[in-house]
UniProtKB/TrEMBL annotation:
Record-linked CDD domains: FBPase (cd00354)
Gene: g5432
Taxonomic lineage from the root: Eukaryota, Viridiplantae, Chlorophyta, core chlorophytes, Trebouxiophyceae
HAMAP family on file: FBPase_class1
EC identifiers of the protein: 3.1.3.11
Fructose-1-6-bisphosphatase class 1 C-terminal domain span: 204-327
Broad class of enzyme this protein falls into: hydrolase
Keywords assigned by UniProt, alphabetized: Carbohydrate metabolism, Hydrolase
Protein name (database record): fructose-bisphosphatase
Length: 340
């Protein structure tokens, strides 16, 4: 179905009763992504860059907000709400879960059906320099009321996701989605205003030749991680080829490249968020034949204890992630702060 519109592809795969709510969520979300892509393309002209003066200061849970962080949060939150199928949403930009009572977010038996978690604008720290940014999201749904929305909303294990995806805002706007049937990439046709299928059934190579990490922190890394990077750079690892470094410092951009070309994208510090970033991207990675790990265990098996829980994250080709884990000590655990 390459070249077909997003709505056509979704109707072919999500036309049954179980898929109808996801269809509504995806179609509503893609409208928000289009709106955000347009705003990002005009941010410099419309005075949308810089720090949001009305936001609270950075904390242990949340980073300092940019103007576009606040705007994008409102856009994506509204898109999820407008679908009529979301009962609770959690955003990286907000401290708590927001419950939605729109009279529509219920399954046929009256139980709340879907919850959404999202990072509205990943990579916004560098947005003033025109660096690629993205939106990351995950969806939990239940048609039988099995989601315990009353006690722990949006704190499900990643293995219970029913869909996830991300939007990449770069030279093109690309929307990558999975609803449990592989991974599919859609590119925004600015002429028609439609997302069209350009990357059907995406599969990450079993092994790559690229690693993505901020290796300015090399001397703070544990011995296992330093040894792994030393080996693959010199062609002394399981792959006899020497690896190249590619690092954008935008998680969506680094992951998207890894999904296409293979290798590993990582942050060994407890910096990235389990709920909003690690779980959705690990779901995408696994649906494409890859892996998501904290360096010791499968990301999707970890039970979130709080909304803004952070952890090390390693995403990529299955053979590369397995080799990385075999070095043992690869997590940079500690509270060391870096000033940028």
């Amino acid at each position: 179905m390459k070249g077909h519109s997003l709505s056509t592809v979704l109707l072919a795969h999500l036309s049954n009763a179980d898929g109808s709510e996801l269809y509504k969520v995806f179609m509503s979300l893609q409208s928000g992504v289009k709106t955000l892509a347009h705003l990002l393309s005009r941010a410099g002209m419309d005075n949308l860059l810089g720090v949001y003066e009305g936001a609270s200061s950075a904390s242990a849970d949340r980073d300092e907000a940019k103007r576009l962080d606040i705007i994008s949060n409102d856009i994506i939150k509204q898109a999820f709400s407008a679908s009529g199928c979301i009962s609770a949403i959690a955003s990286e930009e907000e401290d708590n879960v927001e419950h939605i009572d729109n009279g529509m977010a219920a399954s046929s038996n009256g139980q709340a059906s879907c919850e959404a978690v999202f990072d509205p604008l990943d990579g916004s720290r560098n947005i003033d320099a025109g660096i690629p940014t993205g939106t990351i999201f995950g969806i939990y749904c239940s048609s039988d009321g099995s989601l315990d929305a009353s006690s722990r909303p949006c704190l499900q294990k990643g293995k219970h996701l029913v869909a996830a995806g991300y939007a990449l805002y770069s030279s093109a706007t690309i929307l990558v989605l999975s609803w449990g049937q592989g991974v599919h990439g859609f590119t925004l046709d600015r002429g028609s205003g439609e997302f069209v299928l350009t990357h059907p059934a995406m599969r990450i190579p079993a092994r790559g030749q690229i690693y993505s990490v901020n290796d300015a922190r090399y001397f703070d890394w544990p011995e296992g991680l330093r040894k792994y990077i030393d080996d693959i750079r010199q062609g002394k690892g399981q792959n006899p080829k020497q690896y190249s470094a590619r690092y954008v410092c935008s998680l969506v951009a680094d992951f998207h490249r890894t999904l296409l070309y293979g290798g590993v994208a990582m942050n060994p510090r407890s910096h990235l968020r389990l709920v909003y970033e690690a779980n959705p991207l690990s779901y995408i990675a696994e649906q494409a034949g890859g892996m998501g790990s904290d360096g010791r265990r499968r990301i999707l098996d970890i039970q979130p204890e709080k909304l803004h829980q952070r952890l090390p994250l390693f995403l990529g080709s299955p053979e590369d992630i397995a080799e990385l884990e075999s070095y043992g000590d690869v997590q940079q655990i500690g509270e060391k702060k870096y000033t940028v």
